[in-house]
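Quick check before the chapter quiz. The format below is the same one you will see on the exam, so make sure you can read both the input and the output lines.
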Amino acid sequence: MTERTFRIILGVLLLIVLYSEQATLIYLYIGILVFEGITNWRIPIIISRLRYGKTYQELPAAAPGTYRFGFEAERVLRLVIAVLLAISFVLFHDVLWFFPWFIGFALTMAGITGICPMAIFMRKVGFRG
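Here is the expected output.
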């Protein structure tokens, strides 16, 4: 499974959960994103390892000094999405009710088009791609 496919799944799943108005599922969604961001046990990597076994190879580690930060851009993306969802859904739900919907549509479109402005920005800032 590619990151692009997983972004489509994340976006559509977020939209479905928001439509169903299940706050518990939103908290679970945020928790999964935080877990993936902190541990780097990302679902696409786990599925690819299970699917391809020993033939699956991750991207080689970059030479020291190539990037400003040792974190991957995808990990930071998941953490940023989790923080934005927590702020907009948990803390300021009445004021920022549209923001989780925007995140869901943005993730879906990033998966469909293959262009994620937030991931591109994270790479430009200095996170590993």
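If your answer matched, good. The first helix runs from residue 3 to 20.
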